[in-house]
Specification:
The protein is mostly helical. About 40% of the residues lie in helices and about 5% in strands. The chain folds into two domains: about 1-60 and about 155-174, no CATH class; about 60-155, no CATH class. The protein has a three-stranded mixed beta sheet with strand order 1-2-3, with no helix packed on it. A hairpin with a 5-residue loop joins strand 2 and strand 3. Helix 2 (about 30-55) crosses helix 5. The chain starts with 5 loop residues before the first helix and ends with a helix.
């Protein structure tokens, strides 16, 4: 980060004034947060906002459920694969000690994905409502305990920073 947003970035991630960085129980160290925000979360929410502005349906999710046995790492990139595809590996980076909570969560997620693939909408009777991504940036959360909830503005201050950098870089502003 350079230019007019550098101070804001350092403050958001807890690195201003010699800070050691903010650690978040869900998102990890400042470095982990920075990388995931820059590479995954913020580009995705930005694209979702663009699609919404074009009046296209968007459904965003956040998997907070870590691979069982790997909770100390949190729900890392690709941790959703066992739940989307119903494959529970015994070896490799997404292997875990899967149990009934995981199988129920997989059934739920697979149903959402199948609904979306067949109708363009993940929702159906009997499922918790997955809200449209809207002006509030509403999304569904698949939580560590296997429950489902909703929230708004996933990492909004961080992703607003990302969007400001994108604007800055595309406008030629230093």
């Amino acid at each position: 980060m350079t230019g007019s947003v550098a101070d804001r970035a350092f403050a958001l991630y807890g690195l201003a004034n010699g800070g050691v960085g903010n650690t978040d129980p869900l998102y990890g160290s400042a470095g982990d947060q920075w990388f995931a925000d820059l590479a995954f979360r913020c580009p995705t929410t930005t694209e979702a906002a663009w699609h919404t502005a074009a009046h296209r349906p968007v459904y965003e999710y956040e998997l907070q459920h870590a691979i069982p046995g790997q909770q100390s790492q949190g729900a890392v990139h690709s941790a959703d694969l066992p739940y989307v595809f119903g494959y529970f590996p015994k070896a490799g980076n997404i292997a875990g000690n899967f149990d009934d909570v995981d199988f129920k969560l997989a059934d739920l997620i697979e149903t959402y994905w199948a609904n979306f693939a067949s109708t363009g909408d993940p929702n159906s009777n009997g499922l918790p409502k997955w809200p449209d991504f809207d002006g509030e940036q509403t999304y569904i959360q698949f939580r560590q305990d296997g429950s489902v909830g909703t929230s708004t503005g996933l990492r909004k201050p961080y992703c607003d920073l990302y969007r400001d950098v994108v604007k800055q870089r595309t406008s030629g502003t230093p």
